[in-house]
Amino acid sequence: MVGYWSCRLLNVSLIQARSVWLKRHAVLTAGATFILVCVGGLVTSHGAGMSVPDWPYSCGYNMFFFPVSKWVGGVFFEHTHRLAASLVGFLTAVLALWLFGWKSRVLLRWIGGVFMAAGAALAVLHPAHFAECALLIGIGAAGFAAGFYWPKCEPSPKWLRVLGLAAFAAVVAQGVLGGLRVTEMKDELGIFHAALAQLFFLLVCSIAMFQTDFWRSLPVAAETDRHHIRLWFTAATGLVLAQLIVGATMRHQHAGLAIPDFPAAYGRAWPDTSPDAIARYNENRLEVLAYNPITAAQVDLQMAHRILAMLVFAAVAFCAVRARRFLGAGHGLTRVSRAWFGLVAAQVLLGAATIWTGKSADVATAHVACGALCLAAGGLGSLTAFRLLGKPAAQARLAESMGPLQRDGQTA
Amino acid sequence: MKKIALSLSVVVLAGSLQSAPAADVAGKVTVKGTPPPEKVIAYDDTCSKLHPTVPKTRHWVVGRDNGLANVFVYISKGLEGKTFTPATTVVEFDQAGCNFNPYVFGVMVGQPVRIRNSDPIMHNIHGLPKADGNSEFNFAEPSQGDINDTKWVESIKKPEVMVKLKCDVHQWMFAYAGVQAHPYFAVTDADGKYKIANVPAGKYTLTAYHLKAHGAKPGETREITVGDSPVTVDFTVQVPAPQ
User: Fold this and answer.
1) Fewer CB under 10 Å: which end of chain B, C or N?
2) Range of B56's domain?
3) How far is CA B208 from CA A140, A377, B200, in A?
4) pLDDT band of A127, cuts 50, 70, 90
5) Strands B113-117 and B147-148, how do they pair?
6) Which residues of B touch A278 (CB under 8 A)?
7) What is the CATH number of the domain that holds B138?
8) In whole numbers, what is the pLDDT of chain B averaged over residues?
9) Angular region, B219: left φ>0, alpha ψ -120 to 50, beta rest
10) d(Cα B100, Cα B168) in Å, to the nearest integer?
11) How many domains does one find in chain B?
12) ipTM for the complex shown
C-alpha cells in the first residue's frame, strides 16, 4: 500500500507546470482557507455560532444582501464567516474545475445554463425572491461566459483531479454542516465542522504543494527509509489531528475554561472531579459570559488535551531529532521538522496563554490557527518524507508495472 | 323546620366552597457570608452608548439587611395530582441597555411570555431548557420594538428550574426562568423579600433556589403548613467557601 501511494506521488514529479496561474490560484485557495479557519475560530471564541439563527438566510435576508448596519456583536463574526466560507467555496470550485483543464469548458456552459434557467424559473414562480433570482442568473451567466474563456490546458492527472473533487465535496459538506449546526442547534455538529475544517485546510495545502516547483524539483525515493522517518512523521501528524479533534470538542462545550489554571489544575497535579468538587467549581466561578456549567467530563477532556499536548510535543521533537541524526542538519526534511517543532512549541505557549488570559478570544483563536498550521506542517512534511524516502527496489517494480505514460505523468 | 335546616345547610356549604382556606406565604431570603464582588462587563462601543452605568454581573445581588435578590421560591411538593389553569397575565421579558430584564423570573407552564427588544440594535433570544418535553429555541429580534408572544409557549411545556436564556450576539446577556405547573412561586426582590399569594391550605415543601448558591443542588427546603392565616418563612443562603 505504501509503495503504491509512493508511486502515485512519483507521477507528480514528472508533471510539467500546466499553468503558473493554476499554482497561484491553488496557493490563494489555501491562504483563503487559513483565513477562513481563523474567522471560524473567532466565531466560537466569541460564542457567536448561534447569533444568526437561520440558514442559508441571515435573519431573513439573502446572506449576500444582509445590511451592514446589522453586523453587530457576534453577528459580525458569524456573518463574515459565512461570507468568507462562500468565497472559499468559490475558489475551491474554480480550483477543481481548473484541474480538469479544457474538459471544464463544456461543463461550465452546462452548469451556467442550468443556473440561469433555475433563476428564470424562480423569477416566474416566486417573483418576491428577487435577490435569489438575480444571484442565480448572475452566477449562471458568469459560469456560461467562463465556459468560453476557460484555460485550454491539459487536465491534471486523474488522482489530482480526484483530490480537487474531494476538496469541492468537502467544502460543500462544510457549508451544510455549518448550516445544520445552526438550524438543528446541535453542538455536536459544530465539533465535526471544526474537525473537517482542519482536514480541508490540509487537503488544499497539499493540492497547492503539488503545483509548486519545490515539489517537482524534489528527487523521488532518492534515499532508503532505514530509520522509519516516514512512519514517525505520519504518526506524529496523526497525534496532531487527534489533538485538534479533542480541542474542537472542548471548545464546543461552550463552558469556558473547565480548568482555570495552568500548569496546575485547580491547584493540583490532577483535579478532583467528584460531584462535590464540580459543584464547588461552579459555585465559585463568576462567569461574565453565558457559559454552560462545568462538568466532570469537561475537566477530564481538558486533562486529556494537556496530556496529548505533551505527547505531540515529544513526538514532533523526536521527528526533528531523528531527521537531524539520520538525514543531516541541512536536509530538507530536517528543516521541515525543525519548523514543525517551532510551530508546536508556539502552540503549547498559546495553549497556556489561553488559560492565563482567561480564554481571551484573540489568544484562543490564535491557538486554533496555530493548530491548523501544525497539522499542515505535519501533513506536508509526511508527504515530502514519502516522496524523498522509499525502498528503491519496490519503487522500480511498481513503476515498471504502471507503464510509460503514467511514469511520464501524462494523463492516460 | 326541616326545610329551614336544609336551607341553612345549603348556605353553610355554599359559603365554605366559596372561601376555601388559603393564605399568603411570605418571607425574606438573606445571605450569610460575604459574596464575591460582581465583575464588570466589557460592553462593546454600541452597547456602551445604550447603558448609562457601568454594567456588572448579577450573580449575588444583596440589598438591605443582607436581603438576597433573584432567589426563586416555589412550592416543590404538596400539589401533586392537582391541575391549574395557566395564568393569562403576560410576563414581560425585555432586552434593554444590552441586558436581559428581569434576570430571574417565574412563569407558569402555558403562561404567555412577551419577549421584546427595546434596543435599537439586534439581539437574539436563545432558550436552553434541559427538561424532557421542553425544546431549545433560537430566534432573532433585529429591530427596536420587535415582539414575540408565541415562541416561549410553543417551546416550554414542562416545569423546569431553571431555563437559561442567552443572547449569542452579546454573550454577556443571560437570564433564567423558573417554570412551574402551578402559580405558587415568587422571585425575591432587591431586598430579598417574596410573597406567594393565596396558597390553599395544606402541607407543602417550600424551596428557595439561588443559582450560584445551589447550582446543581435542589435548593433550601422548608416543610410548611398553610391554614387561613399568613405564613412567614425565611431562608438563609450561605455563600460558598472560596476555593
Assistant:
1) N
2) 20-238
3) 63, 56, 19
4) confident
5) antiparallel
6) 216
7) 2.60.40.420
8) 92
9) left
10) 12
11) 1
12) 0.85
DSSP symbols for A350-364: HHHHHHHTTS-HHHH
pTM: 0.88
Q: Residue B103: which of B112, B93, B113 has the closest Cα?
A: B93
Chain B residues contacting A via beta carbons under 8 Å:
36, 38-39, 41-42, 44, 46-47, 57, 59, 121-122, 124, 126, 136, 138-140, 142, 164, 166-174, 212-213, 215-217, 240, 242-243
In a domain, B2, yes or no: no
Stretch B202-206: mean pLDDT, rounded? 97
Tell me which chain A residues have a C-beta less than 8 angstroms from the C-beta of B216. Answer: 275, 278-279, 282, 293
Give start and end residues of each alpha helix (H) in A47-186: 74-99, 103-125, 130-149, 158-183
- For chain A, the structural domain boundaries read 18-102+151-210, 109-149, 222-390
> Is the confidence at residue A396, as pLDDT, over 80?
no
* Interface touch A283/B172, C-beta < 8 Å: no
Instruction: Pick B189 or A221 by higher pLDDT.
Output: B189
Asked, for residue B195, whether it belongs to a domain, the answer is: yes
Q: B94-111 as b/e, with b when 16 or more CB fall inside 10 Å?
A: ebebbbbebbbbbbbbbb
Handedness of CA A266, A270, A271, A276 (dihedral sign): negative
Q: Which residues of B touch A75 (CB under 8 A)?
A: 122, 169
The DSSP element (H or E) to which A224 belongs, if any, is strand A223-224
